[in-house]
Design goal:
Amidase signature (AS) enzymes; 11 strands; globular; alpha/beta; eight-stranded mixed sheet; three-stranded mixed sheet
């Protein structure tokens, strides 16, 4: 058997089920990896050894109860014994949650959020909470309360954000899979920065229940993984309603994992390399090269690839800033702790408090109108292909600008000029790590991701296409210098 840390989540679960390794041994291996690597990559903000040990014992008891009965073994949870950390924007009962902020020091979650319950039902072992920027706002993970999350491909560069710690944990092979969430690109950005697969599901695919609400309905949960099929299996685990959901979508034909084995034929792929929201932002040559590689691979797979239009004028995106600011302003920060926030959070919250009700309502309407404009602009294609990021991951401290938080925000937009559109229109999008190259002469090899997006409810199509690309242009053999 390969080294435990090189196994995918599915392979590790299968090894546990075959009793080639015990849940306790998997946990000890994961602890050792975290001890050796976490300080370098900044993956975790909280480790939970007692919680993990208890869950590993529960997994062992489930295995013992199944014995050698094939039917009982097949009925075991699909990720039994697999270590899976939770992003520190999500509640795990009895575990501190600081959401990247000194202002939330001392808060201990009273309940498990719904996705945590789903992961527990799937048999995962919760080994800790992963690093995130303050209340998940920026696309880099450099909180004041923890070391920055770094991509293991170049420790001088950011792992992205806001699921940066999750991406660092998976890319450095501490764990095979990690929970993330995405309100403006926060799964896909770190996936691209760290050479991983990151899917933002459709609005309504993964419920915010039983405790969360949809609000502006920009954000959704998901995972970061090293291969497409692990992402598909996680979607099978997480998709499903809770009582009182505002949005619900029909489920897959069979399962999302099965979709990876199906091959869509003769799709029309529309390519856009012009930034949507910052049209003058420079796009790195290797980001373009990644799209060219993907285009050729898709053509070789029998699909029709052609240029597609930018879906709307950049100025029509601006109402998103009002929505994002109001979301920041509604973060549950105690008033007496407001001064502990970083400048970007304070600027965003102050801006959000100045957005009146009519302006906010109009911004929500504008986002819904963008969904219609994008559908019209892309009516002649089945899938949109873009770079995932306009540039390679920035150096630690390069993008964060405490002296000018508004400039910080617009620098983030120039770095991620395609990401938030998929949150606004509610459609699914996945980043996959097809291309690897040095960003500068003599520099280290870095991943350059491409993003595939499609219409609402189209996860099966995206997973099928991403799995085909993974076979055509494999990346599993690539190992970062750290990990």
């Amino acid at each position: 058997m390969a080294e435990l840390h090189d196994l995918t989540a599915r392979e590790l679960a299968a090894a546990v089920r075959r009793r080639e390794v015990s849940p306790g041994e998997v946990l000890e291996h994961t602890r050792a990896r975290a001890d050796a690597l976490d300080e370098r990559v900044g993956a975790f903000v909280t480790r939970t050894p007692d919680v993990a040990a208890e869950q590993a014992r529960e997994a062992t008891a489930a295995l013992d109860a199944a014995g050698t009965d094939d039917a009982a073994l097949a009925a075991l949870p699909p990720l039994l014994g697999v270590p899976l950390p939770i992003k520190d924007l999500t509640m795990v009962a009895g575990v501190p949650m600081r959401a990247g902020s000194a202002a939330l020091e001392g808060f201990v979650a009273p309940v498990d959020d719904g996705v945590v319950t789903r992961f527990r039902q799937a048999g995962t072992v919760m080994v800790g909470k992963t690093n995130t920027p303050e209340v998940g706002l920026p696309c880099y993970t450099e909180p004041d309360i923890a070391p920055p999350a770094r991509t293991p491909w170049d420790l001088s560069r950011s792992a992205g954000g806001s699921s940066g710690g999750a991406a660092a944990a998976v890319a450095s092979r501490i764990v095979p899979i990690a929970h993330g969430s995405d309100g403006g690109g926060s799964i896909r950005i770190p996936a691209a920065a760290c050479g991983l697969v990151g899917l933002k599901p459709s609005r309504g695919r993964i419920s915010t229940g039983p405790y969360g609400v949809d609000g502006a309905a920009l954000a959704t949960n998901g995972v970061l993984t090293r291969d497409v099929r692990d992402t598909a299996l996680a979607l099978d685990v997480l998709a499903g309603p809770w009582p009182g959901d505002t949005y619900q979508l029909p489920g897959p034909q069979t399962s999302y994992l099965d979709a990876c084995e199906r091959r869509e034929q003769h799709l029309r792929i529309g390519v856009v390399t012009t930034p949507f929201i910052t049209p003058d932002a420079p796009v790195h040559a290797q980001a373009i090269a990644a799209v060219e590689l993907a285009s050729q691979a898709l053509t070789d797979l029998g699909h029709q690839v052609s240029e597609a239009p930018v879906p709307f004028p950049a100025e029509k995106w601006l109402p998103f800033l009002d929505v994002w600011s109001v979301m920041a302003a509604t973060a549950p920060i105690p008033p007496e702790a407001e001064h502990l926030l970083v400048p970007l959070s304070r600027w965003m919250r102050e801006r959000g408090r100045d957005v009146d009700g009519l302006t906010y309502a109009n911004a929500i309407n504008a986002g819904q109108q963008l969904a219609r404009e994008a559908a019209t602009a892309w009516a002649d294609v089945d899938v949109i292909l873009t770079p995932s990021l306009a540039q390679p991951p920035p150096g630690i401290g390069q993008m964060r600008d405490d002296a000018d938080p508004e400039a910080d925000f617009w620098a983030q937009c120039a770095f991620t000029p395609w990401s938030s559109t998929w949150n606004i229109i509610g459609s699914p999008a996945v980043s996959v790590p097809l291309h690897w190259a040095a960003a500068d002469d003599g520099g280290p090899v870095l991943p350059f991701g491409v993003t595939l997006g499609t219409g609402l409810g189209g996860e099966e199509r995206l997973l099928s296409l991403a799995a085909a690309l993974e076979e055509a242009v494999p990346w599993a053999h690539r190992r970062p210098p750290v990990g």
